[in-house]
Amino acid sequence: MDLLSDIEKQLKQTSAQGFLIALSGGLDSTVLLSLFAKLRQKQPHLPPLSVRAIHIHHGLSPNADSWAQHCQDLCDQFQIPLIIERVQVDKTNGIEAGAREARYQVIKKHLQTQEVLVTAHHLNDQTETFFLALKRGSGLQGLGAMQQQSVLFGMPILRPLLGFTRSQLEGYAQKENLNWTTDESNEDNRYDRNFLRNKILPELRERWAHFDLAVQRSTQHCFEQQQLINDLLNEAFAEHCKIKNQFKLLQFRQYSPAKQTALLRMWLAENQLEMPSKRQLTQLINDVVLAREDANPQFQLVNKVIRRYQDCLYLTKRFSDLTKCCLKLKQSTLSLPDDLGNITVQENEHNLIFYWQDYSVTLEKTNLPISIRFGYSGKIKHHPKRPREDIKRIWQELSVPPWERNRIPLIFYGNKLKSAVGFFRVFDVS
Asked: Does the keyword Ligase apply (predicted)?
């Protein structure tokens, strides 16, 4: 099938008003950029096709600067606006995972309303993704691999080249005299995807010429079966997941293991997380869901943490330890660590009013130094008619999860705790 006509048909089936092309400068994305440039020229009588491109400079290769310049030259040639963004890659969970996370997070910042991200994944990529999911022991959700249209990290994504092989893209590039960059790390077989691409899959394709098409059919079967399971479980899922990042465990322990894992996969998919292996799901159920009642267990999944509190699972980010943090308040605005926003202070004749997020607290003026801290242990008097109580009990009474307690700014006058902004004040004991 002709690449240009096929993509044109796909675009007519989308409601997107603009397209942001993920451009690495390699063969696949260069072909994609060329095709969109041709489509824009082909439709002069229609509203002009809104096309932009974005290149992510990961800083992982000595050639990264030249790749960025190549992408700029390409976009200048096709008269397509280009965004170039540099990112820092967190290598904690491996370079591949860290680069992917950094790439999509920065792209999300640039994606406009009614715009769709367009990636150059092709049929060979689909086969690799299927085998990587198989290696992880993924269920149907993971084995469904990539779909032509989907949502990832909360972004709508279009993969218009998914039905074409790399050799077809090479044929188009040669015919159009396109130039592209080559990432030297593609030859490094320490990376799982490269090992499959360079060592394993060539032999399978040599023996079975239509192997990639067969894998694509299998991924589609898996995807459709997962969709059927989701349809059958939708009513139960709605009872457990009324808030996107929370999963209520009421009645959950009475389900069969198969139903438990299926519902948890639906929850993780709802939050655009990669599917864990069967072993990981079993560990999540045993170590978190079935942990003793008074425990505060947690389970790390890539860059997220699943925690349990009061018979509910919570999906959170990984948080920094702020318990030793002490910030001196010297101006009207103080920036807080770990994405907690700002504390601002307004002054009137007798009081200071502290604002944080949607909360505020009014305290008397003081000549003592004011500081913001996180985390406190001991007894305090938080109500004028009640005795001093352990702060842990107060947090429990307010239904504040344990991991949030050390993220709420505490106002100190000198060395005395005066307030947890938005939650309670501390009264002096007379």
From this structure: yes
